[in-house]
Amino acid sequence: MMNSVLYLDLSTKETSSLEESTDESEEEESEEEPKLKYERLSNGVTEILQKDAASCMTVHDKFLALGTHYGKVYLLDVQGNITQKFDVSPVKINQISLDESGEHMGVCSEDGKVQVFGLYTGEEFHETFDCPIKIIAVHPQFVRSSCKQFVTGGKKLLLFERSWMSRWKSSVLHEGEGNIRSVKWRGHLIAWANNMGVKIFDITSKQRITNVPRDDISLRPDMYPCSLCWKDNVTLIIGWGTSVKICSVKERHASEMRDLPSRYVEIVSQFETEFYISGLAPLCDQLVMLSYVKEVSEKTEREYCARPRLDIIQPLPETCEEISSDALTVRGFQENECRDYHLEYSEGESLFYIVSPRDVVVAKERDQDDHIDWLLEKKKYEEALMAAEISQKTIKRHKILDIGLAYINHLVEKGEYDIAARKCQKILGKNAALWEYEVYKFKEIGQLKAISPYLPRGDPVLKPLIYEMILHEFLESDYEGFATLIREWPGDLYNNSVIVQAVRDHLKKDSQNRTLLKTLAELYTYDKNYGNALEIYLTLRHKDVFQLIHKHNLFSSIKDKIVLLMDFDSEKAVDMLLDNEDKISIKKVVEELEDRPEFQHVYLHKLFKRDHHKGQRYHEKQISLYAEYDRPNLLPFLRDSTHCPLEKALEICQQRNFVEETVYLLSRMGNSRSALKMIMEELHDVDKAIEFAKEQDDGELWEDLILYSIDKPPFITGLLNNIGTHVDPILLIHRIKEGMEIPNLRDSLVKILQDYNLQILLREGCKKILVADSLSLLKKMHRTQMKGILVDEENICESCLSPILPSDAAKPFSMVIFHCRHMFHKECLPVPSMNSPAQFCNICSAKSRGPGSAILEMKK
C-alpha cells in the first residue's frame, strides 16, 4: 500500500516539530497520520553549522558526536548543546566510531589521520597514513582489555590490535578492490563495503564468510556509497543505489564444513526502491530508509535535487510495502548529493538522525501525545478523547478534561447542540462548577432546552437557580417539556414555591390548560399539599388520583368527594372504597351516594359479591336497585341473599311483571302451584314447567301440570318426552282424548319405550352388581366368623357373671360363645325346645339369622 508523501518544512523553524508543507502546489492534507515526528537539532548545532558543515555523525544513548568539514569533532547532548570539542584535523572528518560504553572514540579524516582515544582516560592511539582514511570502527567492547581492537579503511582494510605489551599491531583483512567506504562492527562480525561489494568478516575465527556483490556497477561508489546497518547480531541490512538486501548470518552444519567457513550468509529479502538510498535503520520488524531524490523540472526538463525522503517500509521476501513517506525540507537540499546524507539512529529510544552538511534533523516515533495532537488538528475530537482515556497514564501533554471541553466547543460551533449536551455527561462528570459554566454558555446561545435532559440530578447537584432557569425557559415556550422535567426531576433540585407561583401566573392566562393543571398538581404533591393536588386531579379526571390517595393515605380528604370519584371511574373507586372500609365506612359511602342510586347500586353489588352478609341492612334497598339498574343480577341476588324480605321482593317483581323472579319467590315462599301456574300461563314454557316440577318433586304439581296440558297438544308432547322418569306415562296417556292430534306422538311413544327399556337395563345391571356385592360380603363375613375367639380368665359368663373358665382346669366344662362375642356356660343357657332348636344370644335377643345367631361351642 503506497501512502501519500507528507512534505515537512524544516527550513524556517528551529526546534518545533514541523509537519506541514511549504510547497503550495503539493500541499494536500493527508488523512494518513504520520508515523514519525521531526525536530531540528539546534542550540550548539546551529552555531556549528553556521560556520562549518557536518560531514559525519555517530549516536550514543547518552550523547552525540558530530564531525565537520573543517576537521572538528563535537560532543553534544541530546538537545544539541556542545559539551566537548576536539580539533582533530584541518580537513574533513570522514567517520567517528564509539564503543558501546561510550567511553572510547575513534576518528579518521581525509588527510589520513586516525585517532582512537578514551574520553575519560588518558589512553590514546595516533597514526597518520599516506592516503585518506574513509572509515573507522572500534570494537563494540573496546572498554575491555581483551577487546582493544579497531579497523580502518582506505585503500585496504586494516585491523589494529593491542598486544600484551600495550603495543599496537596491524594486519590486513582485505585489499585490492578499491577504497573501503563503509564499515559496521557488531559483536564478532565486521561488515564493510568496497567498490566490488560487501564482505563480512568473523573476528573470532579470522575468516571472511561472505561476499555480497554490488548490483548496479554503473553508479560511482564515491557518489552513491553503500549503507550498512546491523539489525541484530546476525542480521545485516545493505542498501546500495536503489537496491536493499537483508542478509542473515547462519551457522553451517558440521557435515557441510569441509574447508568452508563455519558460518554462511543467506539473503532473506531483496527488493528495489524508487530512489537512491542514503541510509538505513531498523524499526522493530520494519525499516527506516533515507532516500536521495532527483526529479525532472516540468519547465526546463532538467534534473534537480529534490527534498530527501524518509520512508518506513515493511520488507517482504521479494518486495516491500510502504508504510509512510515524508519529504524533508532540510537546509541546502538543492545542493546536496546522495553521499552528503547520513542516517544514524539510537537503538534504545528509536531516535533517527538525518544528517546533511547544513542541517541535523531528529526523527522519532510519535507517542500518544503526538497522536492526540494530530487528531485535534484534524478536528477528530471524539477519537482524541477516546485515545486520551485509553492512555491517560502515559500521556504527558494532554488532559482528558481539556480535550473534552474542546470537543464540546467544537460541537457547539458546528451547531450540534444536542450531541454537545449529551457529551457533557461524560466529559464534565461530577464537576459542578464546570456544569454550571456550560449551562450559562448554552443559555447565551439560547439552547438551554438541549442541555436540560442531561443535567446531573444527584451527584453532583447544581445550584437551584440553574434548574429554575431551565424550568422557566420551558414554561415560556414548551408546556409539555416543562411537564416532563417536573416529572423526571426530583422536587428538591429547585425551589418548589417559586415554580408553583410561576405556573399559577401562567394559569391566569390559560386557566383550562390541562398540562399546566396536571403539572401544578404534581408540584403540590412534591410540596405535600395533597388536598389541592387531589382537587386538581379530580377536576382533570386524571388516572393518578387513586394512586395519590393510596400513596399518601388521603381517605379523610375524599369522604365528601366519593361521587366525583365514582363519576370518574366507578370500578376503581368501588374497589378502593371496599379495600379501605376501615377508613370510610359502608354507611358513609351509601349516604354519600344517596342522590346517585346508579353508583349506589354498583357499590352495594360489589359489596354483596365480596360478602353476602356485610351489607345485609341494605338488601331490601338493593331489590329496587337491581330491578332498576341490573335486572340480570336480580335473580342471582334473590337466590344468594338470606336477608332480603321475600314479600317486598315479590311485590316489586309483580309490579314490574318479572315472571322468572316472581316464580322463584313464589316457590321459595311455598306457593309452588301458583308458581307453576304462572310458568304455564305467563311463560307458556312446558320445558320450564317440567323442570320446575322436577325440582319440586311434588306429585300434586305433576297432576296440575297434566291437567293444564291435557288440552294442549304441544304441552302433551313435551310431557311425553320428559315425564317418563318421574311419573308413570300411562297416567297421561289414559287422559288423552280420542282423536286428539298430538305432534310427534310416535316419536314421543318410542322415546317412552326406550326410556322404559333403559330403566329395565339399569335395574338388571344394578341387580347384578348387588348380588355380586352381597356374595362378596357374605364370603367376607364367613371368613371373619370362622376365625378363633380368644378366651381367658378375664372373660365372664353373661348369665351368671362368674368367670367363664373354671378355677380347676382339670375338671370338664363346656361353654357357648356367640359371634357377637357374648359368652355363656352351657348350663346357664335355656334348653332349646323342639320347635325352636336354634339358640340365640340372650343379650342381643336376635330374632333372625345375624352376626349374633351363630354359636361356637367349646367342650372339655
UniProtKB/TrEMBL annotation:
Protein's cellular compartments: Cytoplasm, Cytosol; Early endosome membrane; Endosome membrane; Late endosome membrane
Keywords: Autophagy, Cytoplasm, Cytoplasmic vesicle, Endosome, Golgi apparatus, Lysosome, Membrane, Metal-binding, Protein transport, Transport, Zinc, Zinc-finger
Compositionally biased tracts (Low complexity): 8-19
Keyword DNA repair part of the UniProt annotation: no
UniProt-listed Pfam families: Beta-prop_Vps41 (PF23411), TPR_Vps41 (PF23556), zf-RING_Vps41 (PF23555)
Protein's GO biological process: cellular response to starvation; endosomal vesicle fusion; macroautophagy; protein targeting to vacuole
GO molecular function, one term: zinc ion binding
Entry's Gene Ontology cellular component terms: clathrin-coated vesicle; cytosol; early endosome membrane; Golgi apparatus; HOPS complex; late endosome membrane; lysosomal membrane
Function text: Plays a role in vesicle-mediated protein trafficking to lysosomal compartments including the endocytic membrane transport pathways.
Protein name as it appears in the record: Vacuolar protein sorting-associated protein 41 homolog
Gene source species: Trichechus manatus latirostris (Florida manatee)
Lineage: Eukaryota, Metazoa, Chordata, Craniata, Vertebrata
